[in-house]
Amino acid sequence: MAQLVGVRRSFVRAAMDAPFLTRENEHALAVRWRDHQDKDALHQLTTAHMRLVIAIAARFRNYGLPVSDLIQEGHVGLLEAAARFEPDREVRFSTYATWWIRASIQDFVLRNWSIVRGGTSSAQKALFFNLRRLRLRILQKADGDPNVDVHAEIAAAVGVQKADVMAMEARLSAPDMSLHAPVSEEDSSDSVRLDFFADDKPLPDELVGDQIDTERRHDWLQSALTVLSERELRILRERRLSEDGETLEALGTKLGISKERVRQIENRALEKLKKALIERNPRFAEAAAISG
């Protein structure tokens, strides 16, 4: 850890000690990089502007992210600026690079400040990075006036809805909370928030799988039922396929046969049905073996 800190300090020191470039030197290096992809020219150009990266990164240190990461992201923006810079436009590289450095760092902050991704529009970004400053300025200007609608004024200044300002303020005032944190300090059961997020319902893929299996079995059954005679089919429907399930005695009375005869017909129909299912759908035999 100490070694890592030492590397960071030496990097910052080297950046701060890098010589400033004159306009002529800067233009020459930019042309060499643009026209010839001269990596030495790129190195000199970016090294001379690392102090700019460090200065911009320092403005975002209050968002709880490591400054070294902010500098690294700023360096990515610096390289992007070097790749897009047109030296013939008579604009200093630092002026052009500032926008890219800031944009790269802002995107990094928005991606990593919270596990909940915030708005990515320009207005939402402006609200995120300027809300505290605008709120302080409006409160100072109001000088304790209770009639001042701070949220409405911030919304007008940034160009967003008042509800957006209130939602962003709530996010900034309530940091992320670990799911492994205790439910409350008074709770002695060692319960954590994650314990209350479990859903006992089947997963979507399980629901779809069950639905497909049910439809497939229904098709198998309807196909196999065609091998039964009309009386066999009636007995199975009233005995096995109805909600109430007719008794042998009651069904025998309806058909004018004994309950024992009903039992024999039922057993024979079941055997015929099973045979038909296996012959027409070999997968049914596998499913039956697994369930058995």
Characterization of the model:
By secondary structure, this protein is mostly helical. It has three domains: 11-112, Four Helix Bundle (Hemerythrin (Met), subunit A) (Up-down Bundle), CATH 1.20.120; 122-173; 204-291, Winged helix-like DNA-binding domain superfamily/Winged helix DNA-binding domain (Arc Repressor Mutant, subunit A). The chain has helices spanning 2-17, 23-36, 39-47, 50-58, 67-84, 93-112, 122-142, 150-158, 162-173, 204-224, 230-239, 248-255, 259-280, 282-291. The protein starts with a helix and ends with a helix.
| CATH fold type of the largest domain | Four Helix Bundle (Hemerythrin (Met), subunit A)
State the major sheet.
Answer: none
Rg on CA atoms, Å: 37 Å
CATH architecture of the largest domain: Up-down Bundle
CATH class of the largest domain: Mainly Alpha
Shape: elongated
Give average pLDDT, whole number.
82
Number of strands: 0
SSE arrangement, N to C: HHHHHHHHHHHHHH
* Count of separate structural domains: 3
Helix content: 55-70%
Low-confidence segments: 1-5
What proportion of the residues form beta strands (DSSP E)?
A: under 5%
Assembly form of the protein: single chain
Q: Return the structural class.
A: mainly alpha
End-to-end Cα distance: 61 Å
> In DSSP terms, counting alpha (H) and pi (I) runs of 4 or more, how many helices?
14
